[in-house]
Amino acid sequence: MKRASITNETIRPQEAAHFGKLAADWWDPKGSSAMLHKLNPVRLGFIREAIDLHWAGDIRSVKPLAGKSALDVGCGAGLLAEPLARLGANVTGVDAAAENIAAARLHAEGSSLNIAYRHGELGALGLGQFDLITCMEVLEHVADKPAFVAQLAAHLAPGGLMILSTPNRTLKSRLLMVGAAEAVGAVPKGTHHWEDFVTPDELEELLSGAGMVMGEPRGIAFSASKGLHLSGDLALNYIVTARTA
């Protein structure tokens, strides 16, 4: 397996500390990570469709990732890594917070899932390359975005698929995802810093600089009738695929 070793530091210690404090509560659907529990099925729907399209797999298969390796970057306590394992992948999860990795390992063990969890800077771990890379709601938290995206690209195997999601930097996201969401306790205070949000055009430029081609973004929107759902509205949050150019 080819090694991937871009070691620019991208972790913000204060961000890692913030999320590490939430580790014990991560798997509580009514706790501080409740919004992630609501968001996860939407992301999984997009991921499953992207997997089937990319590898032209059987849409009826319950394990479309069988025989493939997957890397979940910014894995938290494993909320996405575990479903990827159930889809058949050999999963590795990486997170900046040691507390999250400890919680992830404990939960995976209780779920009888064999997931390799690692703590630290992605580019310094020497993990090699993966068929699938997922990076959900992480880009807005890193210190050096071009270096981080380069690290992601270096870990993608030839012919692989990358999937990223991140909040969009719009007036709507500032009002709802930062102001309103934190005010009512939907997300813990200090989780989001609006100035670090990334627009789709900026993400496309970051990916292009790392030798990647971005797919058409899909919005993750909210309505009273549908809740969180995939949408053409990119104003709050969006999810995209990327491939090596």
TrEMBL record:
PANTHER family: METHYLTRANSFERASE (PTHR43464), UBIQUINONE BIOSYNTHESIS O-METHYLTRANSFERASE, MITOCHONDRIAL (PTHR43464:SF19). PROSITE patterns: FUMARATE_LYASES (PS00163). The keyword S-adenosyl-L-methionine applies. Belongs to the methyltransferase superfamily. UbiG/COQ3 family. GO terms for molecular function: 2-polyprenyl-6-hydroxyphenol methylase activity; 3-demethylubiquinol 3-O-methyltransferase activity; lyase activity; polyprenyldihydroxybenzoate methyltransferase activity. O-methyltransferase that catalyzes the 2 O-methylation steps in the ubiquinone biosynthetic pathway. It holds the Pfam family Methyltransf_23. Keywords: Methyltransferase, S-adenosyl-L-methionine, Transferase, Ubiquinone biosynthesis. It catalyses: a 3-demethylubiquinol + S-adenosyl-L-methionine = a ubiquinol + S-adenosyl-L-homocysteine + H(+); a 3-(all-trans-polyprenyl)benzene-1,2-diol + S-adenosyl-L-methionine = a 2-methoxy-6-(all-trans-polyprenyl)phenol + S-adenosyl-L-homocysteine + H(+). Gene3D superfamilies: Vaccinia Virus protein VP39. S-adenosyl-L-methionine binds at R43, G74, D95, M136. It comes from the Bacteria. GO terms for biological process: methylation. Its EC number is 2.1.1.222, 2.1.1.64. This is Ubiquinone biosynthesis O-methyltransferase. The gene is ubiG. HAMAP family: UbiG. InterPro entries: Fumarate_lyase_CS, SAM-dependent_MTases_sf, UbiG_MeTrfase. Pathway: Cofactor biosynthesis; ubiquinone biosynthesis. It comes from Alteraurantiacibacter aestuarii.
